[in-house]
Amino acid sequence: MKQEKLISVTMLAVATLVVIGVGTQGFGWFRRATDPSAQGTASDLLGGGLGLEGLRRAVPVAAVNATPPVMAAAVPVPVALPLDPDVTPSSQVAPNYLPATVQLFEVHWQGLDGRELTAELRRKLRYPQGLEGILVGEVTLTAARAGLLGGDVIIAVAGQPVTTLAGFQDATRAIANLKQTTVTFLRKTRSTEPASNRFTMVRQTLMIVGDRELGFAQAEGAPMIKAGDPRPHASRGPCTQCHNIGTGFELRPDPDLITLPPPPISSRLAAGSNRPHEDRGPCEACHVITR
After folding, report:
1. Is pLDDT of 16 > 70?
2. Among 54, 101, 149, 218, which one is least packed by beta carbons within 10 Å?
3. Could you tell me which residue ranges the Magnetochrome domain spans (predicted)?
């Protein structure tokens, strides 16, 4: 019995010494591997001269860094979205704006339309500086038969000088019940002034003769514009001096800009040679052919 206990104690002591020895040896290896001064002996740990660089090539990165990186939590970033100009909430639509007073823009009388000759128009048309009157834009009916032309500048009606649209309206009101009157105007010539390169004008007078009483000129303001519309001309002051702001003041779309589809035609007409218009290609390119 004593001999068995002695053997057991001896074996336990041997096992303890082995564990202590292995631990001490491992701790020494660890020190040599991590000590910068002992980097030259690292090949002993890596198995026969593989080296640190060899280990980097031999061991996959994914295996070394198997733990997934910690992702930063997503933080919502406010983004300013552009407003759709064609889709505006009804609560944000401004009501139509009608100025209490607006400048007159155009007059109509006996088939002519005219507007006030301004400094801007004088520069654009190369008319003499300081010239004032009613610039004729278009003539039809009585005005055309009398001999007025587009570009003429009316300076008097029945001898009464006119320089503004309101003045022109007043002058025509004075002869509204007459069937004829005189109109004095300036017409540009082909020659220009050498110093200013502006046209020279010639003074003329003609007779306006109507079938009935001449009546007086009707005036109107500048066309409606939408809120926020870009200015299509040079600056002339606040838009509301001349324009109503909003929608619905004029017919949209303009009927003159609408093209109706060609009507159907019979196969007999399509096969014939008498076209009602010039040759535009096969009839079926534009027309529905009926039997």
Report:
1. no
2. 101
3. 223-248
